[in-house]
């Protein structure tokens, strides 16, 4: 949709920035958490399944909780 069409239906620059802030940032956060979860190995294999549920059903809160708490449960490989 061209920018002229967006401006015609009442979406100006401020509204587009607000939409990006309230929809774009949570979507990126959710995708980041989901991709990080699916690419990681965990000490207990059921932890991955347990973290998928809040990330999918509580997108913003689940992603924040995973990024703050769940990343500490991953198996780390130290390459020397």
* β-sheet strand percentage: under 5%
Secondary-structure element order, N to C: HHHH
Question: What's the domain count?
Answer: 1
Q: Structural class, please? A: mainly alpha
Number of helices: 4
Q: Which regions are unreliable across 5 or more consecutive residues at pLDDT < 50?
A: none
Description:
The protein is mainly alpha-helical. It has one domain. It is 70% helix and 0% strand. The chain is built from 4 helices and no strands. The chain has helices spanning 3-8, 13-39, 45-57, 59-68. α2 packs antiparallel against α3, α2 (13-39) packs across α4 (59-68) and α3 packs antiparallel against α4 (59-68). The longest helix has 27 residues, at 13-39. The protein starts with a helix and ends in a 12-residue tail after the last helix. The mean pLDDT is 83.
Task: Give short descriptive properties of this protein.
mainly alpha; 80 residues; 4 helices; single chain
Topology record:
Elements: H1 3-8, H2 13-39, H3 45-57, H4 59-68
């Amino acid at each position: 949709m061209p920018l002229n069409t967006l401006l015609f239906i009442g979406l100006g620059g401020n509204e587009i920035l607000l939409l990006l802030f309230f929809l774009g940032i949570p979507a990126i956060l959710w995708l980041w958490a989901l991709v990080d979860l699916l690419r990681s190995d965990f000490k207990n294999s059921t932890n991955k399944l347990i973290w998928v549920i809040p990330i999918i059903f509580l997108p913003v809160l689940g992603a924040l909780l995973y990024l703050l708490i769940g990343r500490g449960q991953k198996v780390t490989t130290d390459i020397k």
